[in-house]
Design goal:
Elements: E1 5-6, E2 13-15, E3 19-21, E4 26-27, H1 30-33, E5 36-37
Antiparallel strand pairs: 1-5, 2-3, 3-4
């Protein structure tokens, strides 16, 4: 199973005068980089390449954080 990503949150994407992907060494349209795709070179960057909004985690699923206290460890 491949996970879908948006290029706009990839570290390889550079915007400015054009939209360039360093991983694939080619230009893309803005509409392509804002769609979900399954690029194998994706490296997550929480900053939006277009500065429209920052990435936020999906809040529909509860986040479970497991912690271990030193007092819960058994010392022999």
């Amino acid at each position: 199973m491949t996970v879908k990503h948006q290029c706009r949150y990839c570290s390889h994407l550079v915007t400015g005068n054009g939209i360039w992907c360093y991983a694939r060494q080619r230009c893309y349209s803005e509409s392509y980089t804002k769609r979900r795709n399954d690029c194998q070179h994706f490296e997550f960057n929480p900053m939006d390449a277009y500065f429209e909004h920052d990435w936020e985690p999906d809040r529909t699923k509860p986040v479970v954080v497991e912690t271990l206290s030193i007092f819960e460890l058994e010392v022999e």
